[in-house]
Amino acid sequence: MRRVCFLLQVRPDRLDEYRARHAAVWPEMLDALRQTGWTNYSLFLRPDGLLIGYVEVADFQASLRAMQDHPVNARWQAQMSPFFERLSGSAADDSMQPLEEVFHLA
Hints:
Layout: E1 2-10, H1 15-23, H2 27-35, E2 39-45, E3 50-57, H3 60-69, H4 71-80, E4 84-85
Antiparallel strand pairs: 1-3, 1-4, 2-3
């Protein structure tokens, strides 16, 4: 299992709504994440909007592609994209670039 961490930037004026959306993630979105190999998935949000994502997957790129191909993902991404600043793609999942892991205490 590979540990993956990534950063995104949530617009500061949308933080409260972003939190509210993630307090009630659609059940079909949660099922899709599980079906496509996302485990131990967490999001952490700093007051200035810095979002840190952490997930454990067998193959991040394969799990990301499988999620992008899942029908519920397009609906979720369309609703969530306006929350982010400086996306390199059209949606947040297009902009997830894993950080290099330099240390892990097992």
